[in-house]
Design brief:
Layout (H helix, E strand, L loop, with lengths): L3 H7 L13 H12 L10 E6 L2 H8 L12 E8 L9 H19 L3 E5 L5 H8 L5 E10 L34 H13 L4 H13 L7
Antiparallel strand pairs: 1-2, 2-4, 3-4
Length: 216
């Protein structure tokens, strides 16, 4: 059995997949791992949608800049009930995130690559495409499949002592003042994801120039 720390340290986000499908029994194991995650107040209010329809995939890809998702053999949407009274900390999103991490670690242990994506259509459009009721929030899309290559482990950007303190926040604030660049990026993202799909298609060559490049 794989050591849990080995899985945590060696798991990588995979964006290039082989064409062969993921067997149904492994898909169910991966989702079951998500089902066994902790959840706020033990609500376990997650739902999982496996995307198999080519028509649905095409509609989704028209609305996202995560272009590699179209070549992933397995797409799983993770949803969670938003009927929570803890709006301050949005505990439904935390619960979904814990399920997602379980699923990615389980996939890695089974030889399946995964990448968690949230460059997704605005929620109102996604609800229409997938028929999601307003009582559930789509949290992320998991793209999965057998990796074309297994990349090496990446070093962490900081040592443990650089991100650890006790009793109060004693770190140097890296982002004092107003971050104009971040504000502009947020505005552009807000506008872009609300454009009609037909206009997005025209802007696709430009959007691809700004797509983040990864070696996985």
């Amino acid at each position: 059995m794989m050591d849990v720390f080995e899985a945590i340290k060696n798991r990588r986000s995979i964006r290039r997949f082989e064409e062969r499908p993921v067997p149904e029994e492994l898909v169910r194991k991966i989702i079951e791992a998500g089902q066994w995650a902790p959840s706020a107040c033990n609500r376990q209010a997650w739902k999982f949608i496996i995307i198999e329809s080519e028509e649905v995939k095409e509609r989704l890809l028209k609305e996202t800049t995560a272009y590699f998702a179209g070549k992933a053999p397995l797409l799983i949407f993770v949803l969670y009930s938003n009927r929570t009274d803890n709006l301050e900390y949005k505990d439904h999103l935390l619960s979904a995130a814990m399920a997602i991490q379980n699923m990615q670690l389980a996939a890695y242990s089974l030889g399946i690559g995964a990448c968690c994506v949230n460059n997704l259509p605005v929620k109102s459009r996604l609800r229409k495409i997938l028929n999601i009721p307003r009582s559930y929030d789509p949290v992320a899309l998991l793209c999965m499949g057998y990796p074309k290559a297994v990349p090496g482990t990446l070093k962490r950007k900081e040592d443990l002592d650089a991100i650890l303190c006790k009793n109060s926040f004693s770190f140097q604030d890296d982002y004092p003042g107003v971050d104009i660049k971040l504000i502009l990026k947020r505005i552009i993202r807000f506008i872009y994801y609300r454009l009609p799909a037909s206009l997005k298609k025209l802007l696709d060559p430009v959007a691809r120039k700004f797509e983040k490049k990864f070696d996985t």
